Amino acid sequence: MNLPEKKKELIEHxxxxxxxKTPETIGAxxxxxxxxxxxxxxxxxxxxxxxxxxxxxxxxxxxxxxxxMTELLELKKTDSVLEVGAGSGYxxxxxxxxxxxxxxxxxxKELARYAKxxxxxxxVKNVEIIHGDxxxxxxxKAPFDKIIVTCGCPEIPKPLVEQLKIGGKIAxxxxxxxxxxxxxxxxxxxxxxxxxxxxxxxxxxxK
Length: 207
Ligand code: SAH
What we know:
29% of the residues lie in helices and 29% in strands. The protein is an alpha/beta fold. The longest helix is centred in the N-terminal third of the chain and has 14 residues, at 3-16. 44% of the residues are buried. S-adenosyl-L-homocysteine binds at residues 58-61, 84-85, 87-88, 90-91, 105-108, 111, 133-135, 150-151, 203, 205-206.
């Protein structure tokens, strides 16, 4: 099977499993070439539903996890989104097709550069990459409609809740170094309401 065939098969699988739901998210998966966001030697595995190493001990998340988090946020074309953990830039590229603008903060300088290059060659223009500690959010562009965190956090960082609009949503893996629970938080005037969305495994947040 060639890559386009494998891609089609993966998208069908993600739909059947209920990870991909809306035509918009399915469209974003169809448009973004995941092979652009990984080292050459792994490209043949671009459409396996697996995380893939991108260097510096980090990974690009498995496609089903990207699908689940993207769907949970119920994104709108007018949304301004903050991502914590740009990694390869793949999740940001998927988001870019569904919202107005994405700000993504990456702790590792080389990865921030890598994500920037991957997004450039994919032709994505509405993503801004910031090198820094994403647990502090990005006050310069706050408040955000949605926030997505793609590294495991011991708890939800306060600055992220503060930088979320009322009615805004945050998807974040919360727990230990080796396993977390995917939490969806909805900010209300009374505080953050949270829902649990099952177990997940992300690389830990760094400080
Ligand atoms: N969303 C990425 C996958 C991210 S892997 C993708 O689509 O490829 C998690 C990323 O979070 C890693 O790149 C790691 O360097 C980054 N990270 C860890 N701690 C961080 C922090 N405090 N601030 C910003 N990024 C962080």
